[in-house]
Each structure stands twice: as structure tokens, then as C-alpha cells.
Amino acid sequence: MNRQEFKELLAKRVLILDGATGTELQKYNFLEGVSTPEELNIKFPERIEKIYSSYINSGSDIILANTFGANKLKLAQYNLENKIKDIIFAGVSIAKKHAQQKGSFVAGDISSIGSYLYPLGNVSFDRAYETFKQQAELLRDSGVDLIVIETMTEIKELKAAVLAVKDVYSGPVITQMTFTNEGTSVTGTDVLSFIAMAESLDVDAIGMNCSVGPKDLLKLAKFMAENTNLPISFKPNAGMPQFINRKTIFPGTPEEFTEVCLKAYDYGINMLGGCCGTDPQYIKMLSEKLKNKPPVKRKKITHHLLSSRTKAIDLNLLNRPVKIGERINPTGRKKFQAELSQNIFGLVKSEARTQAQAGADILDVNMGLPGGDETKLIINAVNEIQEIVNLPLSLDSSFADALENACKHCAGKPLINSVNGETEKLEKILPIAKRYGASIIGLCVDEKGIPKTWQDRIKIAEKILSYADKFGVKREEIIFDYLTLAVSSSAKQVQETLTAIKESKKLFPECKTILGVSNISFGLPSRQTINSTFLKMAINAGLDLAICNPSVDWTIDDEYARNLLSGKDENAKEYVAKYGAVVKKAAVEETKLSPKERLFNAIINGDKDYIKDLISELINSGVEPLTISNELILKALNVVGDKFASKEYFLPQVIMAAEASQLAFSYIKPLLKKDNQKVAGKVVMATVQGDVHDIGKNIVCAVLESFGFEVFDLGKNVSKEEIIEKAKQEHVDIIGLSALMTTTMIEMEKVINLKKALNIDAKIMVGGAPLTQEFANSIGADGYSRDAIEAAKIATELLKKK
User: Tens digit of pLDDT for each residue in 522-535?
Assistant: First the structure.
């Protein structure tokens, strides 16, 4: 099935998807004798065959092959990486044998590699890309009808997966993320940011699966249907799992599930099925109600989205000029350049935060350091900036390699600044914009320089559009810059620029316009008076975006400046007479923060660049290391916890704060007096036997260490004997247990029972996505935490009870 056939099929009828695979395998004890579900394909194919056939016989139009975790990084955990081809080919072959009998389709299933990408984790973008690429190639060669990328929680990993799949596979691609009932992924990505990314990468359908039950997911599906023209898939769980009588129970019913799916259908959802806890009975009932029904038509929307990891903006909805902060730029700034030359990004992050607080909508990132490695610098800058502010980024470089690498690392849909009318530039940069789904600024200048007339600038715009058409970049993604020249030297060019904007809006209504406003005032006094007045004139001409300093006054509309800009004040005589004698007021220096306040803020903001210097400054001024630990670092982490609880912070910010605090502790620990070197407590941490998920556990370890605990991390899939032996050996105060799979939760009780049998004096703390306080109580755990910050608080409380 090719992409056009898939599109036509969805236009004719709703497609019924399958239900859960994992919980069905658990129900029949089909996971016995294998180390991972994908191993069934080659070891016990009859088991997975039963699951496939049950869904096809229940009415599924599309079933997912058992390849969810069939990637080399995950399979390597079970020494199965050399079996990846056999596993994928067998899984698809078994599925196709049954699907073809009923006219159903088989989708290759791709999900997370199990680790976050840098800087949230240690996996590079390129390594993730290559991992997904290998899996996609094998799925392609096995003959799947389409590929589904599902249960993704991290938008940057999703980008790597989509790019890898589309590079090697020409068939339909569906991508699905998993969201909490609050409408965000665990790393903070909201539904609109997901839409921005998925649409920009030209997938064939988007959707959501897992995490929550039908009613909670329905609210998000309605929002999605109202904000994209793409087909949508809907695969909720059968409610949130509960642990009752030592069994995992999903509280939903097929009737409730089908009722919600019918509402989703009314919203215009094209594909419906189930995730965890659903079974063939759910799919049969759904199929009886919806199979072969024509889709409900949705209202077509037009938008122009840009996004970060956690925020998307629609340029079509903002009824004011979009402000792009211009201050992340080392040009002419010695201190800025000195820091970058040492790979320090303190000023970069400071400018990002300041501009965000001042009201910038987008941040321009320019790392054009003379003699510097611009590619490396812009990668690092992007990674640093996007984890401390939630604004979309404008990637500012004239080098194709720097732009491509910046696009890779941008956790969202960026703006590229820029391309121009030079053929070589167009042929190098437009393919990058197409591949990574970026919008792009088109400068109306070419090899001959900046045209003097608005007509010639329009001709360059037409050339840019013709090349955009050639490389498949949508015209709606082009933003034209008709260039701002200094009024002091090119007074007549002001009107040429404004006229070009007016004419552009008539000729290319689908394209937006932008200017670098501050260029207009070069060489003149009271520059902001001219800048602000010019911006108002440009807005009246139809300007959509402005590259500017958001921290200054943009309300000024000055008569003298207007006369100058309109050509009535020849040689700026009247303007200079008015403002030339004005003594520039000295900028009021902000009250300098004390070293204590700066360290406190550095922890909260996850800013590691100045930690060492701040610690040295505090120690040299006589501040006790214990004071630094208790009064600054730990209190700052408590603030981070409050921000996380209020959803102001998400996991990325928590991780960065934990890393900053760990760095601070590493500097003060050797300075503590011996009688103060006692750690807060000892903790052994482990993901229980049978469970190979450790992202959440790793974050808990980092946060506990930040709070002064000594942590012994045993890793994942750890037996009860290993956990208790380590606890006994190290005389730990707390045993921390993690599980992400409902089937492995019961292992926690086994650890607790062994601890009691051996009379180990340690408290037990448990956590993980499927756990609840009720479950923790039922197995005799001493504490339960929902997240890493809460884990530190619970651990502290447990110590007090010993």
C-alpha cells in the first residue's frame, strides 16, 4: 500500500485497529520462557499467532506486528541483537499469513529505544537515528503495509524515528505519542507541539495511544481533531490499571470503551482501536459499530506552527507582530565571545531567559564566533537553551552543516534563518528545511547584493519560491525578509522596503514577512526612538515578524523619526537637532545578586557553567560548606520540586537541576569537615526482576544524590536476592524499588518478604508509572512516590522514622 492509496482508503472508510498485545500475552502466560515479547516470534510463534488471529477475526483492519521493541539497543539487553532480522521477519510473516485471509493490513511497529536522547539522557541523536533506521529497513524488507511509530514520550526521539523511517521507507507512516490526562507527555510535550512536529515531518497520520483511559484520551483527541487536517488514530487503554488480589485489573468495559470511541468517531477520528487492557472482545464490539462506516468530515484548518519541546505558537493566530529575540549573538560582544571560545554558555542561557521574560515569542540563535566551530557551538547552544525556556527557536547561520545539525537537535519545529537568492544557497539550505520540517526566512538579496528597488526584491522572492516548489518546501513555510537598511545612509531605501512588504502581501498572501528592525537606526542617536517608530510603519505595511530586542520600549511613535523615515527630513537634520544633543542616560545597573543568590538560581535553572566559580567564591568568603549544602542547594531543589508539582517544570528541568546540584555537591564534599561528612542516608535502588525500564529510576537516583543520599544503583531486571544482599552488605537505610510493567509489580512484594525473612533493617520505598498508594500499602511498602522529587521527600521522611 502506497501513501496515496492509504489516503484514499481513509477518505472512504474508518479503519479498525487492533487491541493490546502485551496484556493479552500476560493473560495467557505467553511470556513464560522468553526474555522479551519479541522473542516469541522465533521461539514460540504459535503464541503470537493466536493474538494476531484473534484481532483479525474480531474485525481489525490493521494489526501491529510484534516488533514493538525489536531494535538493536533493546534486544542487546537480552543478547538478541544478532537475531533482529529473524525476529522482525518472523513477526511480520506470521501476521501477514492471517491478515491476507481477511483483507487486513499489517503494520510494522516501532517504539522507544528505552533511553532519552542527549541532554536528557546519554544516547546521541545519530545513534537513535541509526537504531530506528535499521529497524525500519528490516520492516520494509519484510513487506509491511505501513509503519506505526507508537507510545513515544519524548519529541526529540520521535523526530529521530520519523526521519529514519522516512529515509528508508516510502509507504504510509503513522506516529503516536502517549499523554497524561493533563495533556502532556512525561517530558512536557503538549498535543499542539506534537502536531507541529508530526505535520512538519510529513507523516501520513498522527494519533495517541496508551497512558490513560478512553474518557481522558477523548478530550485530547477532540483537541487534536480541531487542530490538524491529518487523519487521526485513537488507541486508549481500558482505563488505568489497578492491582487487586495480586492481579492487574483494567477497570474499563467493552461497552464503555465503545461508547467513547463512537464519540471520537463523531469528532472525525479515522482510525480506532485499543491499547493496554483491551482485548478481542473490545475490538469486536467496536467493529460491529464502526467497521466500514464513512469518516466524519472535519473542518479544514490553516495554521503556521512553530514549536519547542513544550510550546507551540500559531503565527496565523497572533494579531500582532511576532517578536524574535536577537540577543543570542556574539557579534561585537567580547565577553560573549570569550565564553563561547571556552565552550561556556552562561551568557547564552542568561540572554535566553531574559528575552523570554521580556515577551519574546521566538529566540534567534546565532553562534557565528570568529574562528569558532559554528556547528559544534550551535548544537550545544540549542541543547542548552531549549531545556531552560519553552520558546521555539530560530536557527541563525549561513552554513548548511551548522543548520542541519541544529535542526537535528532542536526538540520542536524551528525557523531557519536564513536562505537568500543565491542559487548555491537555495540548493543547499532548502533541502534541509524540507527534511527537518522547518520554516525558513528568505532574504531578498542575491549574488549582486541588495536590490535598490522593491520590484527587484520581489523578483528574488519569486526565485526563492520557485526553488521552494522544486524541493517540496510549502510556500506557507516561507517568510520573506525585504531587508532593513540604515536610514542614515540609505534614506530612500526605507520606502522601498515598506513597499516591498505591501506588494508581497498581495502577490504572495500565503507567505509572511519579517525584518531585522534595529538595522534601521545604525549611526544615529536615540536609536530605539527610530526602531520603534519604524516598526509601527512596517506593521502598517503588513509586517508579520520582527527580529528585535524584546527588552526595550516598543511603544514609541515619534514625529521626528517618522519624518526622517518618510524622507521629509533630508540628511536627518531635524532628527539630529532634536536628539543629537541628548546625553545618553547611563543604564541603571541592576542590583547585583549575591553569590548565594546566584548559586541558588543556578541550581533552580540547571545552570552548571558557573557552579565551580560560585562555590569557590562562597568558600573564600567564609561560608561553611554545610551551609551551602543545606541552605542553598537543598532549598533550591525544594523549589524545583514545587515547580514540578505545579507543572511549571517537567522532567527535563528536573534532570538539569539534579545535575547542577550534583556538580555543586562534588565541589563541596571534599571540603566538609569529617564530622559533617555523614551522608543523609544510604539507599539501594533497583528496577525489579523481569522489568527492563530504568529511565525513571535513573532520575530518582540523580535526585536522591542531590539531596545528599549515598545511592547504590543496581540497574534493571535485578533479582530479589541481589537487592537484599546489597542492602545487607552496605547497611542501607532505604531500599528503593521501581517497576514500569504491571506484570513485574508483584516482584516488589517478593523483595519485601525476603527483607522481612532475613530481618534486614531498611525501609522500602516503591515507585513507577502503574503503581498507586493503595498498591504500596497492600504489599507492605513503607513509602510510595509518584516522581523523583517526591521520592527525595519520602526518603527523608523515612529516615526520620528509623
Answer: 888 999 999 999 99
